[in-house]
Amino acid sequence: MATTSLPGISESSLDPFQERVGERDVVLASLMGGDFRFESDSPELLQLVRMAYAGLPAHRLPVSAPEFHIELRLVPGRSMTTTGEPPAVRAQSGAGLLCGVMDERNYVVMSPEQGRALVVVSRDMLAFPYHLRYELIEFAVFTMATCRLGLVPLHGACVGRHGRGLVLLGASGSGKSTLALHSLLHGLDFLAEDAVFVEPQSMLATGVANFLHVKDDALGFVSGDSARSWIRDAPVIRRRSGVVKHEADLRRAPISMSSGPLELVGAVFVSARKADDPQHLLQALPLETVAGRLINDQPYASGQPGWSTFQQTITRLGVHELRRGVHPQASVDALLTLLA
Helices 176-185 and 328-339 sit at what angle, rounded to 10 degrees? Predict the structure, then answer.
């Protein structure tokens, strides 16, 4: 499992900005077009915040940047887990509040309208830093930014060049993370690997470029000792599906993270199917199939207020399917033709 330390990086360099208010420390970070204030008297929880958000470029969207306040509270006692991993998060909503509940000692309560959230964590949950960060802390960040800024939340990756971006969609196991890996290793700007957020009026995409999650088999086509070591030596996480991946910190790699949002110029469905012709990996999807394909791939996003505008615009810009070639470099080259 991933640890809560970052060897080789001093604590001072981890802080986007830190101050002290009474008995609590405060960490500030600009994320996804918003200004987040994380407050806690627990050094362990604030260290998880630093792991997630320190050293990231501040993205600004063409709307005013709201402020968000997240209080992190560490409580004594043990969780109710009996399976060797934290209970799955259950979403609840009502009275203007959104909640994600693992159990009675591990949950997040949010008021997106007020831009405030409380994350409560039992001390034993510190042994599960990936689940704690991803399913409670990031859940609060992503949900509040989505609601307050009117973003369309996509499950996918995003890479680009010169301010232009492509959102990479497709089922789990289709190869999105592997394609994102090779895209960044070959010089494309990296925006996000697992979650992309789109402002539907401007079609500007933002995200959190902190980690890349790749399986061991992705190393087969990676050349260069430094790149292979960067992935191979990264902590290992186990997702709830049972899939085991390396969680490679993008801030440790000599890559180009996108310094600002990317303007989407199209969407690409990544397919695990091999191309019939290795010289032609891309094919445009018929217009009459795009709406259904997008909804089937993004069931949560398709229920959000900005979905109709996003769907109409991305369809007009162009939606393609990308099948596998002989080498991942061929797939990257195919993306470059759309970004030209």
Answer: 80
pLDDT at 12 over 50: no
Amino acid, res. 131:
H
Which residues are CB-neighbours of 30 under 8 A, at least 6 positions away? Answer: 16, 36, 58, 59, 60, 65
Q: State the CB neighbour count (10 A cutoff) for residue 20.
A: 8
- Can you list the alpha helix ranges (DSSP code H) found in 59-171? 129-132, 138-149
Given this model, what pLDDT does residue 17 score?
A: 59
Q: Which domains does the chain have, with CATH numbers?
A: 11-149 (no CATH), 153-339 (3.40.50)
Q: Taking the model in full, what pTM does it have?
A: 0.90
d(CA 246, CA 130): 12
Sequence letter at residue 80: M
Nearest to 269 by CA among 296, 308, 302, 306: 296
* Residue in 335, 287, 334 with CA at minimum distance from that of residue 315: 287
Instruction: List pLDDT tens digits, range 280-309.
Output: 999 999 999 999 999 999 999 999 999 999
Q: How far apart are CA 193 and CA 33, in angstroms?
A: 18
DSSP conformation letters of 174-223:
SSHHHHHHHHHHTT-EEEESSEEEEETTTTEEE---SEEEE-GGGGGG--
